Records
---
Amino acid sequence: MAKYLLVSFKTCPWVQRAAIVLREKNVAFEFRHIEPDNRPDWFLAISPHKKVPVLRIDEKVSLFESNAIAEYLDETIAPRLHPDDPILRAINRAWTDYVPTFASSVTATGYAVDEASYKTSAEKIPVAFERLERALEKQGAGPFFNGAKYSLVDAAYAPFLQRYFFLNRVRPLGVIEKFPRLKAWAEALIKRPSTHSFPQGEFETLYRRNLKRRNVWVSQFVADVAVAAE
């Protein structure tokens, strides 16, 4: 078995995506966290884009960009998370390609610098949710995107749906309740052990601390960086 090193910032959702795939495949790996404001020379030497995630294989090869890492892992390590049917696989890949747009829409309120930009960002969330709601309705019954079987699509969306819940608990957005299929999917992903790199309360505390550190508009509603008993 190859030796895997996954380099991360603690709260990076793109790294979380790669870690989820590794856990779904029961692959042992080293998780090494670095600080975004202090990226060490050894990391800069192995990361062509100077970003995380980087998956280091056998201390020889560095893979980068979360989608490429997920596809590589799925091609080389069983069980396969992509559907066997080529049409379903293409549909899954198309929805995976939508992840960056979905992520920027759903988590943008966490980067808004003032109330006006916060409201503008919040208005984009229903559009992204509506598209996934319709897609999920076409995929049939079951807790995951493809029904009963977990897939790379689930791994890709889980970090960003998790962050929606984090932001919703800081300042209620009240959007996901309008999309029952999406809400059920998101809750199923949050319950899945592979989603979590840290205990849930600890990770949410880290996320809230980052909101405070960035001094974004919504951070004023984080009364305490510790997660309340909600």
---
Amino acid sequence: MNPFTAPTWLSTLGAAVVGGLIVFAFLKTTPSPQPDPSYFLADHQRHQPSPEAPDGGVAEEALASVEMPSASAPASMLGMPMPPEPYPRQKRPPCEPKTQKAINGGCWFGPAGRSPCGAEAFDHEGGCYLPVIMSPRRPTSDEP
């Protein structure tokens, strides 16, 4: 073995390190391309109509020919409507004054949020209400 010969793995490692340094130096010295600011400005302006462009009354005519839904949607479209009578085992008035409200003969927690309430609560006067359900009674005597 020649004393001036390096092991193969050492020369491979050295070549990899030198190659990595060359790539790093090239990336650091090459300027990165900067996007043209007018490109983004042009894209933004493309989607906004010019305030000077009159519509010539076409908008009013088009809206008049289209049947628009009424502004007040029925309660059934917003969420679950309040039932007309209490549920079985629902607490009846008198209700706790701070946390419950008497509606249609039953006690309700609420308002717990704003309408529409979805499938979890009932819509009533712009708020969400949950029924107050009574716990089952505990037996007063032991079994023999």
---
Amino acid sequence: MNVVDQKKVNELVAKIQLNPNNYKVLERIPLTTIDENASFPILLSTVSDDSIPMIILDFETTGLSFINDKVIELAMLKVSYSPKQQKIVEINGIFDKYEDPGIKISPKITELTGITDDMVRGQYITTQEVASFINGCDNANQSFPVIVSHNAAFDRKFFERRFPQLTNYPWACSIKDVNWDKYGFNSYKQEFIAYKLGYFYEAHRAIVDCQALAFILNQLPDALADLYHNVFENTYVIALTGNTYDIKDKLKQMRFIWSQANRYWVKVNVREQEKDELINTLERLGLTPSNINIQYENAMSRYGENSIANY
């Protein structure tokens, strides 16, 4: 329990009033105070006739490997998005469940997430309850909402490994499907974006991360609109093999990322209109067609386990 020292608070307020330019005051993201016992729906704006369902999803896990590590928490926020308003207009539900990984949680993960062995002991997340929350019913084979994650390349793989019957969802990534540079952010880290907007939250708890992401996206309607638009864009992944050492700096400038797992350079979300020009540039740098591997993707496959973009 935090004890407020009113004297220190008064002193700090006086300092801020005297030199306001020397301080930056952050507000807790208000959506992060909502829990599963809230009365849903929670209106954030006027609900319009174009509102569509979205699921904002986040995992906490025992590590970074979707092959070797285990889920310890799955959180989902069910929302309605209005393309006309470019806003999340309604929160319709919260799903937040622990799962026993069957192994001891490392002190590092507990320090990062606050999740202990006692919190997850005996807990299990069923495929049926996940499908029911996402779809609004028990039928996992109907038309699906978009699942949004702030690192879909991580979350989608854990999701589909853990729930292999639930692989028919379109996914969006609020890291890769938003050009944060365009909106004045030189980092895509969620905590950093919140800070630049004047807010804070307790990160690395899955449900709080989901609530914070919903709030952040609603503060940046153009970014949210870009994310939604990009879901329906067909894109390509380009992976480069062969000797690329001499051009690695140019590849970095072109936003290629080194895949340590695969030992090649990769660029994701290449749009149709830029693909041919990018390939021509790579060939001028000395790469041959056999060194340039191209994979077509859409929202149903993007960020999945079979993508050559795995890094």
